[in-house]
């Protein structure tokens, strides 16, 4: 099988397609291609034959027809007269919403638990590893259903808030935690509230500018400017001042029990919360392991070197350990985010109207267009996954170790 | 992926070689079993009992067809289907007959390519609420949280009803009747809506059925019936006339108790004779034995018997015959003549 | 001088003091607690919070467990017996254990068959899992799949036997032609296996009652048994497929490489649930009308493809982690591609990837619960459907979900502990 370094040229024979390693790969690829085409042809032929036998066809016209059903959580305007396409978009947005919320919460819990697992407090360490092991080793579907069961069976229902002998009451008169979901006050933006919001946004920009300035001062002149308290001051004071100067334009609308349900305020549906919490705590258990591994991966010498330079423990963590640990943490973190997004399709188990619930659920059922709907469903998820990994890869490249 | 699929297909085709695909009837006969799609569990219509045996009104239809075709009412493989899977299961040939209280609608009949063989239950969509809410009409349900089974016509009717009456509601979609029960009982939804028969069946399974009322409004027509694939007319005829035989048997007074006696020899009523195969060749025309209807009736009784045994007034479900009485008694059941 | 000095010093000890124990705060339990529980105010708060948390859990859970009732036939009876006290109603487990474990249609008189199959599974995978187990046991591992198929699905033993014979024939054909060329060996093996299986298929068809036990259609499988079957079958099937995909993705042949890349990225980009929908409602359209593939088989196909894509990525990591020199050494020995992969690269790459593969396997096993969404009655499906909806057990949430959590935790935790153990075992080799 040894390759001849200088083969005789110009005498190509058919047998070389099998015997010569230079050409053999073409043979293999050709065979693979033929097999692939044959397989597709076989499946496609069956599909066409089956569809013809059943008198069906492949058509995406249904997307333009009125959906006819209502969706309980719509981030964009939607009525039962909107099209199936719009219903799918509502589903996409709901998927993205729960995935976004879930990723944030999972990161917070995961980092916290991961750091606490390395704490020098024995009890906390044990509790955290119990948490990680329990949540990692039980299917997420069971967690979703358990949290939903808490909503159904444990939390008071709106009927318990009703009447004179109500068994449940609102917390601070503002929050209602019911089995149907959580009701919280909603801000109402009156006249002049635009100014307050603008001031708020400006002060956030101000914080960043200030921190940049402090960093520059540190690097250029070696001058250490405290950042924590000034940042907090910039965050709160201008906004609060603007709020009172404009005559308190933002008020709160409290949820109130009216008729069958609470009305007013912001309503977070039980299915959203169950899905969000379950996905977060499940994924957080994995993220915690990644974080722990990431921190452990930074060699002890780094800590000691930093300490010998005279850095304080907080700065060692911020300036030496975390930047290095992040490089180890980020790639698995991305795949955890992807997993969470894909797992959000389990929404269907609790009736959360995500993409699987609208396009892959009701639309599919009502139109009977199974092949089209599921193909589109997969395409949507593929697009979401690829988009997330693309964004994350950009970040990953930014923090990558730059070797010179 | 495709390579694997084709390998799998070849293996399977190899394993199942010999199963002809000419017609559903031949398939069923060759298999010796009828694959019948039913719900995943709705007491009274189709639900497995404690021993894992399926019972119910829809199950009765399946058994009758199996008895007519194969002579054995137990030669049925019950395939539980959800609202989502039922049509594809039928279209793809996984099941031969779908008896899953499915509403006969234009688009299902024409667009999805199915053939409804008749109506075994005239139903309508209703609402069930806890008594303590003090609601007496569906029009008072403004702002209520409503549990609905997705993938059914009820979902569309509900949207129409609330839009027409210009009141708001909060839909809670659920996959199966089983999942709806705890949600409704624990108060996560105020109202449960589905076919009135389904409501009665669901209520019957509650610990305290008396605490719940079914509102008087019926907001839609829901003719429920078994269906088969478009295109196989012989199989469609068998299913249609088995159902008709059950209905006609009740009209003619043929019951599971007296059918054997009536079928022993030709009697005085020529229609009974034709139905039971003691006169004429109706069975042969269908491609079945002469006593096909006898076996179908013996399987679980005539329509009335099936009704009384599974969902009638003496069962926990307690449905009155209402529209489902014989035409001679003011109902809508009207079997074409056996001639 | 010394005298004066002696007068000024009042006392000079001339014997050793007995050894004192260290201060109480610096020894034993107290020291440990000071260092591990109450080091600084922040740690103390954390400790107190944790203690309070544990206290709440225990005080709530203990009476629930202690008052648990094990022998009633409905929730109402449980409540009656408890008379308002907190207490679990474990009777749902004692009454419905068979449904939870085996599904509600699997014939009770055949419960011993899947049970035996799983006991044998442990024997069969022992030589794979523990490198120290006797090598001869691998023969049983080879026979096991056919035995398990026969035990679980029943029917005549001749069918799995013929397939086994066919595979053995294929193996010998492969060995025969392998010396000429690996590809040729593969083709010869495949042809021999197919011919023998096809020809041998006549024998079981002609005498279906030889060595037959009651045949059970796969639709009747259910409960935790279904999870176990799906998990083991799909993982074992996806391993070879995953290896092929990983090698394909590393291949220098662009067509093959891109087929594998597209397949892997596509599968990894969509949720498993959409693939299960495909199995449930779409896949049947892609097969000829007479190929009546039952739902369990379709689900197995889709889950296998799903896990193969993930395993392929793990193995690709293993392949990439091998030093370049290993590839070059294999080439310089004059081994062709098949030989170098089989003899040099894969054994090392697989060894590195084992922990990753086990993680994928655990994840996959957990994911088998998703089949409950497509109306199959696995453990979760049984709980959500027939049991929670029955009149007797309407509202028994914690006992049932607790059981599900318990069962899955036991299995997954032991597998992941095994994986960690294995990781340590393998790590020593490199030092």
Q: Estimate the helix proportion of chain B, in percent.
A: 25-40%
According to CATH, the homologous superfamily of the largest domain in chain B is Periplasmic binding protein-like II
Low-confidence stretches of chain B: 1-22
Global morphology of chain A: globular
**Which structural class matches the secondary elements of chain B?**
alpha/beta
CATH architecture of the largest domain in chain A: Orthogonal Bundle
Which oligomeric state applies?
A: heterotrimer
* Approximate helicity band of chain A: 55-70%
Number of helices of chain A: 13
DSSP strand count of chain A: 7
Total helical segments of chain B: 14
The biggest beta sheet of chain B is recorded as:
6 strands, mixed
Tally of separate domains of chain B: 2
CATH topology of the largest domain in chain B: D-Maltodextrin-Binding Protein, domain 2
**In CATH terms, what is the architecture of the largest domain in chain B?**
3-Layer(aba) Sandwich
Helix-strand string of chain A: HHHHHHEEEHHEEEEHHHHH
Shape of chain B: globular
Question: Could you write a compact summary of the structure shown?
Answer:
The complex is a heterotrimer of chains A (404), B (339) and C (431). Chain B is of the alpha/beta class.
């Amino acid at each position: 099988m040894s390759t001849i370094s200088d083969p005789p040229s110009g005498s190509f024979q058919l047998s070389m397609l099998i015997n010569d390693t230079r050409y053999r790969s073409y043979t293999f690829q050709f065979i693979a291609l033929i097999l692939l085409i044959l397989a597709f042809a076989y499946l496609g032929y069956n599909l066409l034959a089956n569809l013809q036998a059943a008198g069906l066809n492949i058509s995406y016209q249904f997307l333009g027809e009125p959906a006819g059903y209502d969706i309980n959580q719509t981030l964009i305007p939607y009525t039962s007269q909107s099209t199936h396409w719009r219903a799918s978009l509502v589903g996409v947005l709901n998927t993205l919403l729960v995935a976004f919320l879930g990723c944030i919460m999972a990161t917070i819990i995961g980092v916290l638990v991961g750091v606490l697992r390395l704490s020098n407090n024995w009890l906390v360490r044990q509790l955290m590893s119990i948490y990680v092991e329990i949540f990692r080793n039980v299917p997420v579907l069971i967690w979703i259903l358990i949290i939903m069961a808490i909503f159904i069976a444990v939390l008071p229902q709106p009927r318990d808030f009703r009447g004179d002998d109500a068994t449940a009451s609102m917390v601070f008169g503002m929050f209602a935690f019911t089995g149907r979901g959580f009701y919280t006050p909603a801000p109402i933006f009156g006249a002049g509230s635009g100014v307050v919001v603008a001031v708020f946004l400006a002060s956030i920009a101000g914080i960043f500018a200030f921190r940049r300035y402090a960093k520059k001062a540190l690097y250029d002149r070696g001058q250490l400017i405290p950042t924590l308290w000034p940042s907090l001051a910039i965050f709160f004071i201008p906004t609060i001042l603007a709020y009172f100067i404009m005559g308190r334009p933002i008020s709160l609308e409290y949820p109130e029990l009216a008729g069958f349900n609470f009305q007013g305020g912001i309503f977070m549906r039980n299915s959203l919360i169950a899905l969000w919490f379950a996905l977060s705590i499940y994924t957080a258990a994995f993220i915690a392991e990644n974080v722990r591994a990431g921190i452990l991966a930074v060699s002890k010498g780094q800590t000691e070197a930093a300490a010998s330079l005279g850095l304080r423990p907080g700065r060692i963590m911020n300036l030496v350990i975390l930047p290095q640990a992040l490089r180890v943490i980020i790639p698995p973190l991305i795949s955890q985010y992807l997993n969470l997004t894909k797992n959000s399709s389990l929404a269907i188990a609790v009736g959360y109207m995500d993409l699987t619930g609208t396009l892959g659920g009701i639309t599919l059922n009502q139109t009977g267009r199974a092949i089209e709907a599921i193909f589109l469903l997969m395409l949507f998820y593929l697009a979401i996954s690829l988009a997330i990994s693309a964004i994350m890869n950009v970040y990953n490249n930014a923090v990558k170790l730059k070797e010179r | 992926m495709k390579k694997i699929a084709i390998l799998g297909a070849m293996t399977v085709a190899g394993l199942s070689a010999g199963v002809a695909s000419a017609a559903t009837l031949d398939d069923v006969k060759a298999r010796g079993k009828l694959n019948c799609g039913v719900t995943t569990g709705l007491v009274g219509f189709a639900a497995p009992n404690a021993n894992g045996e399926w019972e119910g009104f829809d199950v009765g239809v399946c058994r009758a067809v199996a008895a007519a075709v194969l002579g054995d009412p137990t030669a049925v493989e019950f395939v539980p289907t959800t609202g989502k899977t039922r049509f594809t299961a039928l279209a793809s040939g996984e099941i031969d007959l779908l008896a899953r209280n499915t509403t006969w609608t234009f688009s299902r009949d024409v667009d999805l390519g199915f053939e409804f063989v008749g109506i075994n239950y005239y139903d309508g969509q209703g609402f069930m609420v806890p008594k303590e809410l003090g609601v007496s009409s569906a029009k008072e349900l403004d702002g209520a949280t409503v549990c609905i089974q997705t993938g059914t016509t009820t979902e569309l009717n509900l949207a129409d009803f609330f839009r027409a009456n210009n009141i708001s509601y909060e839909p809670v979609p659920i996959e199966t009747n089983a999942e709806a029960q705890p949600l409704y009982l624990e108060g996560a939804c105020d109202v449960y809506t589905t076919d009135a028969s389904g409501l009665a069946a669901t209520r019957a399974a509650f610990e305290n059925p008396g605490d719940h009322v079914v509102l008087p409004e019926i907001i839609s027509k829901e003719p429920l019936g078994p269906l088969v694939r478009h295109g196989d007319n012989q199989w469609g005829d068998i299913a249609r006339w088995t159902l008709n035989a059950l209905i006609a048997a009740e009209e003619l007074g043929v019951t599971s108790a007296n059918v054997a006696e009536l079928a022993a020899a030709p009697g005085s009523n020529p229609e009974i004779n034709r139905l039971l195969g003691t006169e004429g060749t109706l069975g042969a025309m269908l491609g079945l034995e002469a006593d096909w209807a006898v076996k179908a009736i013996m399987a679980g009784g005539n329509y009335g018997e099936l009704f009384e045994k599974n969902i009638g007034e003496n069962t926990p479900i307690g449905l009155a015959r209402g529209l489902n009485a014989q035409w001679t008694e003011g109902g809508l059941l009207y079997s074409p003549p056996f001639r | 001088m010394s005298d004066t000095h002696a007068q000024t010093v009042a006392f000079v000890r001339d014997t050793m003091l007995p050894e004192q124990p260290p201060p109480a705060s610096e020894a034993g339990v107290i020291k440990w607690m000071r260092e591990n529980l109450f080091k600084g105010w922040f740690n103390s708060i954390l400790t107190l919070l944790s203690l309070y948390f544990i206290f709440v859990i225990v005080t709530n859970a203990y009476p629930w467990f202690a008052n648990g009732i094990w022998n009633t036939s409905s929730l109402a009876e449980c409540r009656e017996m408890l008379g308002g006290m907190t207490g679990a109603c474990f009777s749902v487990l004692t009454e419905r254990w068979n449904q939870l474990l085996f599904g509600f249609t699997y014939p009770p008189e055949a419960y011993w068959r899947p049970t035996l199959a799983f006991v044998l599974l442990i024997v069969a995978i022992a030589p794979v899992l523990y490198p120290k187990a006797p090598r001869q046991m691998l023969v049983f591992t080879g026979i096991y799949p056919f035995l398990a198929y026969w035990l679980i699905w029943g029917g005549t033993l001749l069918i799995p036997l013929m397939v086994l014979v066919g595979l053995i024939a294929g193996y010998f054909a492969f060995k025969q032609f392998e010396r000429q060329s690996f590809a040729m060996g593969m083709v010869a093996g495949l042809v021999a296996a197919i011919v023998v299986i096809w020809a041998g298929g006549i024998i079981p068809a002609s005498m279906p009652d030889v060595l037959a036990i009651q045949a059970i259609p796969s639709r009747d499988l259910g409960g935790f048994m279904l999870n176990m079957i799906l998990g083991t079958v799909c993982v074992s099937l996806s391993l070879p497929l995953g290896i092929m995909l990983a090698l394909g993705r590393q291949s220098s042949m662009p067509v093959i490489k891109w087929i594998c890349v597209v397949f892997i990225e596509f599968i990894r980009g969509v949720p498993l649930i959409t693939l299960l929908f495909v199995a449930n409602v779409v896949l049947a359209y892609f097969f000829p009308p007479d190929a009546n593939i039952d739902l369990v088989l379709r689900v197995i196909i889709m889950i296998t493809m799903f896990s193969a894509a993930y395993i392929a990525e793990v193995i690709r990591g293993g392949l990439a982690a091998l030093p370049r020199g290993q590839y070059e050494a294999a080439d310089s020995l004059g081994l062709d591609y098949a030989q170098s992969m089989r003899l040099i690269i894969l054994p090392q790459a697989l060894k590195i990837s084992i922990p990753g593969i086990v993680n994928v396997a655990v994840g996959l096993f957990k994911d088998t619960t998703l089949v409950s969404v497509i109306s199959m009655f696995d453990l979760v499906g049984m709980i959500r459907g027939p049991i929670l909806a029955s009149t007797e057990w309407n509202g028994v949430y914690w006992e049932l979900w607790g059981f599900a959590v318990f069962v899955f935790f036991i299995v997954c935790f032991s597998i992941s502990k095994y994986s960690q153990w294995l990781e340590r075992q393998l790590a020593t080799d490199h030092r």
